[in-house]
Amino acid sequence: MKKLILFGFVSVAILSSCSKEDALDPQGFQASNTANIPQAVQTTIKKAYPSAQVDYSIVQPNAFYVADVTTTSMEAQIVLTNNGSIREAFTKIDSTALPSSVLTYLLTNFPDYDLIHASQKTTGTPTGYRVELKYKTDFYSVIFDDKGAFVSQTMGTPGGPKNGNKKGGHSPAVTNLAFTDLPLPVQSALAGYTFQRAMAKVDATGATIYHIHAEKAGIEYDLAMDATGKVLSSKEEADKPEISKKDLTSLPAPIVSYLNTNAAGWVLKNAVSISSDKVAIHYHVVVSVGNSVQTYMFDKDFKLIQNAGKGPKDNPSLPNFKVVEITQAQLPANISSYLNTNYAGWKFNKAQTVSDETNIKEYEVYITVGTKVYKVEFDGNGKFLGAKLKS
């Protein structure tokens, strides 16, 4: 069961002389941290929120600025461009206002998490939700789209008063950046990648970190870069990899070379490759040599796995799963019903089941809604587990 931690949304102390109650009951417009904030940004905020307490932050100089706004009736984080245009706005909401798809994803991926803050994107495209939470000893900021599908997440200390001890709220962030929004050094560092989406977040030191989803050679990456384009972290997105099994009628050259040397006169009986997210990770090869049958196993680099055995009795078994591609007509009725209800106008791309020796453990369904591609996951009984925006 998740636990709720109550924290304020405002990411800095408004005024040192204000009490907590004063911060939530502002008396007239008050602004802090206005240095280096364009006048156009300040004018927009004062006009839109004439009785608010506001704290400003710089996300990207000469590009994006954040105003944390508190009034007597609401708390919001507003992102503005340097000409004062509002780019996006998140308004604080109660956790009960989060879609069930968001809550299910959180409970599946962060069991027994502590909720710090939740907000809804009310201005900007695409709309969606942002959740700050603590899971075990780490803090996460998790972004969802308007359908409650996972978009991205970042780790690190969440917002709170600058130079203070309180940990809560949202740190300044821009959740939806186009490629052209990125600093030129970051754009250059992405050469060779296919850009998908990005967000920028100010970390606990005040530095802006760019969290980027990109694809290269068929592999999806989650990259973190600073404003100079330096890669701070890079990881393949394989928390629940797409597993596939493929029958082979011909073998990679290194495996052929090995067999020619060590199993002269071999004849291929059957072979399969096991791939994770379209990258081969294992080869299982059965050949006949004269009257004997021999089995070989190779890793992703075509190196022989030692002690694999030479016959059926002592040969290690294949991984204990089976991946089967299925048609739309083979989807269980409750899965189709869920998609019809929550992804109106969806188009089927592909689907597969992941099974152990006896039972289907998971359904993975890839669909398109408008211009978006989603991976929607269900358990073996067709119960929704979560959805991820793929592109």
How are the SSEs ordered, and which strands pair?
Elements lengths: L2 E2 L15 H4 L6 E3 L6 H10 L4 E8 L3 E7 L4 E7 L4 E7 L7 H10 L4 E10 L4 E8 L2 E8 L4 E6 L17 E5 L6 H6 L4 E9 L5 E9 L2 E7 L5 E6 L6 E5 L5 H10 L4 E10 L2 E11 L2 E8 L22 E5 L6 H10 L4 E9 L4 E10 L2 E8 L4 E6 L2
* Average predicted local confidence, pLDDT: 83
Q: Major β-sheet, in short?
A: 10 strands, mixed
Encode the helix/strand succession as letters: EHEHEEEEHEEEEEHEEEEEHEEEEHEEEE
CATH class of the largest domain: Alpha Beta
> Mind telling me which CATH architecture of the largest domain this is?
Roll
**How much β-strand is present in the residues?**
35-45%
Radius of gyration: 26 Å
The level of helicity is 10-25%
Summed up:
With 391 residues, this protein is mainly beta. Helix content is 13%, strand content 45%. The strands form 4 sheets. Strands 1, 2, 3, 4, 5, 6, 7, 8, 9 and 10 form a 10-stranded mixed β-sheet that branches. A 5-stranded antiparallel β-sheet has the order 11-12-13-14-15, with no helix packed on it. The protein has a 5-stranded antiparallel β-sheet with strand order 20-21-22-23-24.
